[in-house]
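Help! Submission page says 'invalid entity' but I think these are all valid:
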Amino acid sequence: MTTATTHMTFGQAINAGLRRALERDPKVLLIGEDIGTLGGVFRITDGLQKDFGAHRVVDSPLAESAIVGTAVGMCFRGFRPVCEIQFDGFIYPAFDQLVSQAAKLHFRSRGRVRMPLTVRVPFGGGFGGAEHHSESPEAYFLHTPGLRAVSPSNPQDAFVMVQQAIACDDPVLFFEPKRRYHVKGEVDLEADLAAAPPLEQARIERPGRDATLVAYGPLVPTAREAAEAAADEGISLEVIDLRSLSPLDFGTVAASVRRTGRLVITHEASQTGGLGAELAAGITERCFYYLEHAPVRVTGFDIPYPPARMEQHHLPDLDRILDGVDRVLGRPNSLSGLED
Amino acid sequence: MSKPGTGPESGGKSGEPFIQLLTPAGVRVADPHFDQWLADIDGDRLQGLYQDMVTVRRIDLEATALQRQGELALWPPMLGQEAAQIGSGRALAPEDFVFPSYRDTGVAWCRGAEYADLVKVWRGNAPSSWDPYRLNMAPMQIIIGAQTLHATGYAMAAKFEGAETATVTYFGDGATSQGDMNEAMVFAASFQAPVLFFCQNNQWAISEPVRVQAQRPIADRPPGFGIRSLRVDGNDVLACLAATRESLERVRSGAGPCFIEAVTYRMGPHTTADDPTRYRDPNELEDWRTRDPVDRLGAYLQSEGLFGEEFRDQVRAAADAAAAGLREACTSLPEPGGLEVFDHVYSGPHAVLERQKDHYSRYLAGFEAAEGGR
Ligand SMILES: Cc1ncc(C[n+]2csc(CCOP(=O)(O)OP(=O)(O)O)c2C)c(N)n1
Ligand SMILES: [Mg+2]
């Protein structure tokens, strides 16, 4: 049996996933700035208000705390709201509503009040964005018990995962790698959600033997390119697409590291207290005797996101990832001989 | 509208008008508009309101005592706000949904909260109290103003469903400065959400007098958002009842959101951890005592011949029983088990958390094994 797939962009795949969710469950409602008539500044919700009405695809006033806060109230009434935060850097006004309200209500109410809230966040840089338009704020939310966070890296995952996030009874931050919105891929629009890999499961993107390279969201394609380049030099990298940022799928990563003995983690977000730190610590705890080298992090620096013409110095790219790979393999690298 | 009474200093200049149906001396003031909302309030009902107010005052005092005796970690007294909470609380229908703050003991009483529900959180036994869907009342909110957005969202959802229910949110004068509160008014107005904002202006936000929050009466603010607003004597249970009923009727009929500023006074400390003598002139409290909400209704009952000895005995007995019930419920709360801390963080399994729970249970089991071996 062959499954017919459709060629579409990452952005179109999210749109298709949202449409499915709206069709399937009358309690699903989208709310955000400019998502209705305009279809969102990235057109991710294009055409949905026209087809589902202004009460299901809601153009909201310009207030992030209220977008999330009213969605929390809707959850009390059994709705499954999907909030769009226009850009990563604009999520901070909603911080309290996410961290003190949505994240805690299930716990506070001893499971009586469910918070099936999804917050879509176009995130990350690499496209020459203006100030506050290129941030990677995920670590703030990984540190918050009660929240889940995911980031798809390809159109098929985007289509399935957005539906899984909406179906999940916990609040889920859905980080969309906005510089990949135009990447095209094959999407199985008939994909069976129940048969799809669970939301919290990482995926081995490319098997390999010599080191494990972990990425998520926008850097998965970069990691794959790095693995291809490394292969040319005879180095076999196992690339893991985390998919879930909270909880982290330590099982998949640990199994890989037990095979390869080496771990490189890459993300755009700054380093201190970041996802890479948590993953390195958790894997070191679980795999200490398998490790041939300390885990290596290749991340954005601990700086405010820089202006567009400087961002290439901040963002991990293929060469910086390969330099990290050299480090974890004990090959000559930019820090060879350096002791800090 | 009513022949306005004269309000105390509050949210700006003194003497701002408000709706008053019962003077501080307990004299009933006729009001052509609001009286119709009290048509069913006969002698029995008046006595019922009085008994409610005395009971919640007694519960409040007992909880304060429990804190002083080390049975509660903290308590936020509502002393002085009985009329605002009972008057508005008794105006609600069971199917209405309430999003309260932490000081709304009287409202919780009206919704049917059990004694244990009123103290569980303050004893530290549970992260929230009542079943929100039994009382149709969300867990109390400590983040100032956050619940106003939840109420607005709930009301939006109800409206989208075509339901004819009202949502009510309670908050203080301090909360009106919060962004969430102002965003809630914007959203409520834009979507014409069926929500009633009920502000208990008790003159203080911990140590900050209301003039720090508002240079004009708080009730002047909502009209700028396009929200109909009333300013009522919050120590007059009849004014609070009538104004809330009237506003709820508007809200339910689809006329959009409403706002009530109930002008009242926090007669006690902010919480049992607070010392108001550091910031408050004691004369102010004495002044407000002359406007006490409970005494006021008592005086009116007296003048109506409804305050006989038998009734007063009955009220006293009910209050005593409530105090005893609260104390008993408080001190007999079961101690929570250690591993319960891991429950309900997520709605389903969570590998990282389960590993932590497993490790901690092994750690605890180590103690048990050691004790068993002894
Ligand atoms: C966001 C936030 N900031 C500060 C506090 C600390 N705090 C608790 S109660 C309070 C005063 C609130 O005053 P008001 O809104 O008038 O309510 P009242 O306590 O008088 O009932 C403050 C500052 C808090 N709980 N939440
Ligand atoms: Mg106050």
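Support: the input was valid. A stray whitespace character was the problem, and the output above is from the cleaned input. Residues B 172-174, 202, 204-205 surround magnesium ion (ligand 2) (CB under 6 Å).
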